[in-house]
Amino acid sequence: RSPRGIQKDMRRQGILKKELLDIIYPPRCPLCDGFLDSSAGLERLEKTDFCMNCAGKFKAIAEPHCNVCWIPLKRSPEASNRLCGVCIKNRPLYSVAAAPYIYEGLISEAVQQFKYGKKTHMADSLGWLLASFARTWLANAEKLLTMPVPLHSKRLRERGFNQSLLLASHVARELGFEMDYLSLRRTRHTSPQMTLGMEERRLNVRRAFTVVSPEKIKDKRVLLIDDVATTGTTLNECAFALKKAGALDVLCLTLAKADL
Predict the structure, then answer these.
(1) Tens digit of pLDDT for each residue in 64-78?
(2) pTM beyond cutoff 0.90
């Protein structure tokens, strides 16, 4: 048997096992707790555990938005994507930080359940959403080196997992990109960014990242993945470390973007 044949059999067995478990323990949407059964009126969003009703309430980022940080811009009849005032004044080191959703409502609830409620199984659903967006957004892009924003070892021990790594794994697998989750390291334990103001955020993560294997980064185009972008400060500091190590370009992708 070839390795590919064995992998196909394992995937087939996994699907059958899941279908059997769904019969014994009917799946529920993690957001509304409704049974995911079309006969009960709740259809499942493809390859996720969300019902179509809840997923339909995720607020997508629509045009016009900033070409770099993707913050939504005011609409007008002539509106088009352009640079926002912040990116004009202080251009980030990354070339773009894209996201499919605004961080509010049910998508923020889903991320919080996943990240702070330790519901790691939600990585499958959220990872599929992110990979689906990335497949369209990066349709014409060459292969990128995919990297998650790292956690400090202390935070990793506390949480038990790196949510960005779980999301990045889905994206890399679905798009066929190479994955590197070891070269970029967080060398300093920092306070949670959400508790800080704009300037405090910048100082909190300043030079908190380093690349331990520059030879793996040199001359590569990197796809950097995180769960949520607020001010983009963490992404920018990661981009600083990656470019210092020789990366040609850094593209950022997050599941959601805070609309400040």
Answers:
(1) 999 999 999 987 766
(2) no
